[in-house]
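*** Residues and shapes ***
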Amino acid sequence: MVSTDSTIMSVGRFPNPRRLGWIMAATAVLLTCGILLALWLGFRPLFSIPPNTALLLSVTPRVAHQGLSSEQLQKLPRVWQAALQGKSCWPVVLGAYHQTDQWYFFSFVPRWNADESFTRDRRGLVALMSERVLPQQGRAFGYLEQSSWWSDAGAAFSFWMDPREFLSGKMAHKNLQPFEGYYKQRVIYTDAIFEASSSRSLKLADISIHLPESDSNRSLASILLDSLGLSDLPFNSANLNPVQLSVVYNEPGQSGMDVVMSFGEAIKQEQARQVFGFLGLTQQRVVKLEDGTLVREKILPVSTDPAFYKGQKITTDHGPVEIIGSEIIFGKNKNHAENSLISANFCQDIKPQARFSNKAMSLFLSNFATSSEILLPAVQIGSLNKKLVFCFE
């Protein structure tokens, strides 16, 4: 026969169920905190990356494989390909920098995914892989910094970009500043302050750009005109300020391009006369000097016919040139001059400033891939809530 006291003592050896629950919960919390702390410390080390880094892009291999075919992935730089191996949900950071007229690449991956065929720098749980030894003098970067770029949990990728390192010469304007952003549903959102300067329609061309009408020094216009080899034209003296530039690339295998310059109002006869005269549309006249010598000199053509310059086309170093209404057309193809871009529905909330066709995007992307076979859709660049956005059509 068991006594009551013995029964009570036997039962008392087992912990109270409520207390046991609290102990297990506290243990789980401590264990979780310990794991998170270990991960945070493991991913916290800083690395030295080139000071002229142009791009840092954070994406998971799983997302990369969903967006690019295996053939397209093979066109990426080798060190990027290695970082995107498999279908992991761990983010990797892809980097690019420009040096001595060449692009070089590197990537940050979890330590256990480091590829032995590349130059490696392992610290904690992170490995930096590069195609070559990176410059010693650089700036500090940590794997965890990429987490600050994510502005939306549903974003496919996030990035940090320094536009000055993508551009060269006059294009690398001192006012350009690095910015961060993320991609979601065919739109790239950034934190860069920007507001489109025009309400005009963009042209259906490979490149179509609005030029700021209120920019007193016309710096952007001067930069673009210089890059197209048109900076020596006498627009200022003719009181002409282009408000839009459009570029159409020639067909594959043919060099050159067609350029359409649009102005705020119809080009007047005297303005057209000055432009054409500068480009070579001149007349000769014979002048008799005081000593009786006859000399020939070139003068600008003079005509009282208002339609004299309409449809007038001459061949210059810039190719055929024609003036139609408020536009000067450099090149043989003028059909696109009258085609205005109808914005796609998914870009309707964006005020556009520029547009690049898939051909233009392919040429740009060829800087980063071994070929231009990775085709991107046309993109409109503009503003949304006074921030810079990129909308893929």
Remarks:
- The chain has a mean pLDDT of 76.
- Residues 17-43 form the longest helix (27 residues).
- The longest strand covers residues 102-110.
- The two ends are 87 Å apart (CA to CA).
